[in-house]
Design a protein that fits this description.
Structural class: mainly alpha
Largest sheet: none
Keywords: Coiled coil
Amino acid sequence: MKEVFNQMEAGVDQNTVDKKCDEIKRKNLLIENDNLIVECLSKDVFYTTTNSMLIVFKFSDMHDAYSVAQKRIAELEAENSNLTQKIQKDDHDEMIKHFQT
């Protein structure tokens, strides 16, 4: 009977040890989970920042291209205006010659 009692007591002791081991494993898993969450958040912040910077650079490039296009439009409008004035002057001169003869 005493041997059965000792075996039961050893079983209880083993269960206590197993329970503490399981608690330690659980705490280690929670710590690992927290570390993974921190890593994911830091990567998310990095990718968000990188993406934002790329958008800013693209916007800057687009703004530069827009400025170049505006300058070219202004040049073409000035050239068009000059050509229109020249045509009008040439037509006027042609009409004067025509009526003078």
